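Contributing new records

If you add data, match the layout below exactly. Sequence lines come first and carry their own label; structure lines follow with theirs. Keep one chain per record. Anything else will be rejected by the validation script.
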Amino acid sequence: MKEESDQSKSYASATELIEKLLTTGKFSERELKRIYKILCKNTHPDLTGKDHASFIKVQDVYQDALTRFSTDTPVNKADFDPYKVIYDTGFSGTLSPRACLYICLYRYNAHDLYSFKIRTKASLQERNMLIMRSVLYWAARYDQDFIKIFVDLNTNIFRDIKTIKTIRQYSMARRLFIQGMDLFFQYQEKGRPSSKKVAEEKLFRSIQLLYAIDNQDNPMVPLAEWLIGELTLEPVSVVVGNHSTTEK
């Protein structure tokens, strides 16, 4: 009975924090991360035995709060359509959550949204927020571990780089990482083993370079590792360039 009571209190605390995030203004990046960890701990189905609804709501609320933190502009949640990015890209029919996540990630990559400057540009805010939210929406339905990877990538924007040598290494790592992502999508599109092989090589090399400059906590590392893991799966045959798909 005591354990049930404690779980109930934890759930109530998480709900209160959700409401606080929804109704208050700005938090520092550090505060947001701290609140996010508390919310995840108190709503994750593996820890609470409850369904996924509250955990998914945490991801949505956290992304809304991050958007306010980055742009100081509220998000109109009622207008959010997770399929809009998919349809705007030219797709129709039924796609798996995995395919939808890949399409949204492709849009994220194609628009250079890993750049803080572009991601927060006022004139592109509506489009960028839609893509970001869509990535998180489909991640929650395909691989919830990816949510933290993606959020970290977009919040940890400052790197501890102090020398010309490390600047060059970091620039090379970033370039290899982006090239690896491009090849990842080419593999999903065409299924060519050569694209898969080179994508793995570039992503792995980017990880090595980041480790070499003692920057293991760089958010590109877990994303590169995630992409390498996804390359072990069969391609989804989503043809991004031609706006068509063979997946049903």
